[in-house]
Every structure is written in C-alpha cells, then in structure tokens.
Amino acid sequence: MAIGLGIDTGGTYTDAVILDMDDGTVYGRSKARTTREDLSIGIDNAIRALDATFLEKVSLVSLSSTLATNAVVEGKGGRIGLICIGKRYEGPEEPEAYVYIGSKFSMSGKEEVPLDMDEVDSSIKCFEGKVDAVTVSGYLSVRYPAHEKTVSDRVKDILNVPVVCARDLTSKLGFEQRTTTAIMNARLLPIIDDLLESVKTSLRNQRITAPLMVVKGDGSVISENVARERPIETVLSGPASSLTGAKTLTGLDNAVMMDIGGTTTDIGILRNGFPRTDVEGALIDGRRTRVLAADISTYGIGGDSRIIVNGKDTVISPVRIIPLCVAATKWPNILERLKELEDVTDDRSADICPIQEIVQDTEFFTPAHTKVKEELNDTDRRFLELIKERPLSLHEASEALEVPYYSISATKMESEGFITRIGVTPTDVLHANGEYTDYSTEASGLAIGYLSRKAGVPFDGYLSQLKGLITDTICRSLMTDILLEDSGKDSLDQMEQAMVSKVLDHSEKDYRFGFRLNLPIIGIGAPVGSWLPAVAERFGTELVLPDNWDVGNAIGAITGSVVEHESIEIRAADDRYLDDPECIVFSRTGPVHFPDIAEAMAFAENEVRTAVLERSRLSNAKEPMVTIDTKTELAELSADKKVFRTAVITATAVGKPDFLK
Fold first, then answer.
1. SS3 of 28, please?
2. What is the DSSP string of 454-497?
3. Do the Cβ atoms of 60 and 4 come closer than 8 Å?
4. pLDDT, tens only, 343-360
C-alpha cells in the first residue's frame, strides 16, 4: 500500500488528504484556515488534524497552491533586472532595472552584431545591489542561444544572484511573451522558496521525509527542486489540481468543473478525459506567457468576496476580505461593536460612489503582516499600531486617535498590503441563513441586518436578494466562460453581454431568454453545495458533487502524473525547393546542419527524447513513457508535387512520481 499526502494551500483554506495511491481510498481529510502571515502554521494545522498512524506511512507528498498566481496578480516578488539582447522589450511586465545590448543574429543565423564584452560587463555591474535576480532574454534565442548563454554566464560570474534565461523556459518563438514569462519566473523565485520552506518545516514537524512534488499549471507535477528553478510553471496550480481532482473523483471524461474558493471561482473544461489547454500559453492577469497550462478562467467571486451597499444598490466586489463570522470568533470586540449597530439605520445620502472609496460601519481593519512603515504618514502609522491589539472600525479608530475618520488612509493602506479588511461576504450570507454554523452566525446576522436597513429591504427579503445576487454572479461567470470558449475570443462583445444579461433578467416580462448547458457541472470546493444546485437548475444540467468534493484540490494534487514536453524545429536550409534539401535543426545548444531530411529527423527525435527523459527524471518520474509527434509543413509546387519546408518534432514523457521505498 502506497500512502500519499496531498496538500492544497488556497487563499482561504489549506486542505490536506491521506490517500491510498493504489486504489484511491481516502483515509483522512482536513481543512484549516490559510495563515498568510506564516503559511507553515496553516499547513501544520491541516496536517496535524490527520491520523498520525497514516502520516507515519506517507511515501509521497504533493502540493498545489494559488500562491504563485496570486503573487503575479498582486505584483509581489523579488526585484528583477532585465537584460535584453538584440531587441528592446515592450511587454507588460516591468522590471526594476533594465539594460539593452545591441548584438544580434539574423534570421538565417548569421551573427550580424557580435557581443561587446565590455558593454556586457558594465551593464551587469549597473545591477549591483539593486536586484534580487536577473533575467536574460535574447531575440531569436530559441534558435540561436549563444549570446543569451554568454551574457547569463557573465551575470553569474559578476553578481551573486539567480539568473533566468528566457530560452530555458520555452522553445516557442515570440520574444515579448518569452521575456514576460522569464521576468515572472525570476520574480517568483523567493515566493516559491518561502512556500516550499514552509511546507518542508511542517513535514519535518510531523517527521515526514517523503519526496515533495508540486503541481504545475497543466495539472501534472514536478519535483521540489524543479519548482524552485521554474516557479512560473506552478502558476494556476490550484485550479489545475481541481480539474485533476474532478476527473479522479467522478471518472467523467466530459464536464465543466467549477471550483469555488475563498477568493475566486475557477472554471475549466474536461474533454475526453483531459483538461482543455491554452495552446498559446497561459493568460495571467491579462499578460500572455509561454507557460503551458490548463485553460482555466478565473472570476472574482468566492466565499470571501466583499459585499457592499452602494447607495441603495448591493454590489459584490472581487476584493478578498476576512468574513465577519470568522473574525468575530477570533476577536470578541467585533461582535460587541455590531451589537451597538443593531438599532442603527444609516440615513446618509444614497448617492452612488466608487466602491474603493466606501468604508461601511460593519467593516473593520487588522494588520496584514509585519512590514516596513517608513512610507506611512504619522496618522496611518499610529492607526497601524493601534489595530495590532484588535481590529477596529474607522469610527472606533478615529475616536481612539482623536482624528477625523477620513484622515486615515485605510483604502490606500489596504491596496498596498499593510492592512486587511473585515466585512460582509458570501460566507456570512450562509452563516446568517443557518446553512453554515462553523463560525459566528450572530455576527453575520447583525451585519447583514444593518446592510438590509441601509438598502431599505426587510431582513428576510434582503437575505434572499443576496443569495440571488451571488448565484447570478456565478451564473454570469459560467455563461461568459462557455461563450468565450465557443468563440475563441478573449472578451464578449456588446451583443453577447446583452444576451447574458437577458438570460439572467428576473423581471416579469412576456418573454424570457434561456441558456442550456449540455455538459454536467462538477463542483469542487467547500461552498459548492450551497451555490451550485441553483446554477445547474438555471442551465438545465446535472450537478455532480462527488464524495470529498470540498478537498478535491488536495486529491488532485496527490493523483497527478509527471508530464514533460520538448519540441525541436527543423527547417530546409535555403529557399530552393528541393526534394531532399539540406536541413537545420534548432537544438537547445544552437543550430545543427544536416545533408538531408532523414538525418535531421533522426537527430531531432533523439534530442527531444533525451531531453524529456532527463527532465522527467529530474521530477522523479518512475519509468516514464515517451511518445513522439511530428507536424510537417510541405510546399505545394504543383498538383502532384510537394516538397519539405519545416517540421516540429515534439516528445512527451509521462510517468507517475517515484515514491519513498
């Protein structure tokens, strides 16, 4: 019997499962609040809740996490120096330091402008003391990597910081996307190190010595060491684990997976037993990368989304906050303050204003983590010190500090990561109506009662209105995802948006639009049992809630396989249309010339096979199987004559992780 420990560190909860990897039996499962200030605490709490008898037998550990994705979206990570060779970078990712070196190769591989090593050294020395890692990206480096390699070697000699070469992360053309990917990867190096060290600390505390794997964005897994070098591949790790878990738990080959977490709702599609993947590379927060990942759409609605009354309208914001029910369980003063508001009706102007400027009387603030505060003004610094003792509303803080409440820059401090807001969320809605009782139902009821009076709607009617609003938001997300996949576009046009709104229109008219989904919905995540039945009913489809749906991510983490891909391009060496031309193979070390197609093909197949086997073994794959796929492009000279122009040889290695004997 091989016992695996799957861990998923999400934005709100950390899940852990003990699984028999031979027959899929779940021997233990647990959930703990994710502790963002120190991830090892939440991981510890989740692991400690499992049966120690089985923990002693763990032979493999696998981790999935939203941490890398969140870090990219929030712009967190190390300071990056970028060196571009042969082309200036004009992409969306901004490094902290940047230099351009003008040497370059032509498309045919001729070195048009050689490297000036004095320029290289002086450029590198400009980064001293200013960056935590350096990214080197050369134009056409996927075909001619010599300049990129030479510069990266000099960086290693001069600076004692990690170096990321764009060529090492992808073999696809596309300078902007390749450079964006490399910058993101370099920025994530300290983030993934902190996460893995937190996990290792927790495992050591439980005397678990099994190998640690990490889930990639396509649902496959890599070793801990590979994850430390290529953290960008773990972006979208959490939702990809949901897809793997959905397939494992249900056995369905074709379905829509909806994972509702604390911060987001992630939607992915299984087709013929495999996740839909984005062939162009993952789109992360609007930035196109060269990362192979499951094509999963993320929408800003989750259990911890902020609910606001703006004027008389209720709005759901994608900003993640701490639910009042959770906070009141930890800090009793919150419940005391909410009781003071029990008979209060907010009679201020009902004018609509920007959501980010609204601070409700039912909202409190607590420090996000220990952070340098020199940039804060005196009032904000005093406010931050004050709420270290206990969370406070702005009005409570203004009285204690003897300053006007509007002089405290709460919204700005929140956006900059100094403080975290506490307020009404969908989790509070479920506590107020009694569906959940894990935390303070009284706090949720008091706060929603206050908002109902502010909105001018009786409590029961307002609670029903909130449930409908949350359900509609999830339905809108699902419709948007299905329509975008069908059209292949990145956004809906005005007519499509209007159609979605018509389908979700609850007004009493003589007609109504409908939308029927022909795939079942698999629910993953703790709150799906509360929200998805109404969604499935709305779209006339089956809802599948398998056993252990609420820890599906962790199950997906421990059931993933090692999957590695490697591609090499072959091109005819010149523009003459010959039956059997000389060929160039663009290997990882540079172009290699061959007298004919057969020799070029044989060399390329051997290169990609060797590369994927090496990479899969670095990720602890046991007896990986390799398949070769060849896509050839021919030039049609006449109706009965075609000649070779290019080919792409792709090797894929697949194997289960080797575990502790």
1. strand
2. HHT--HHHHHHHHHHHHHHHHHHHHHHHHHHHHHT-SS--HHHH
3. yes
4. 877 655 556 677 777 889
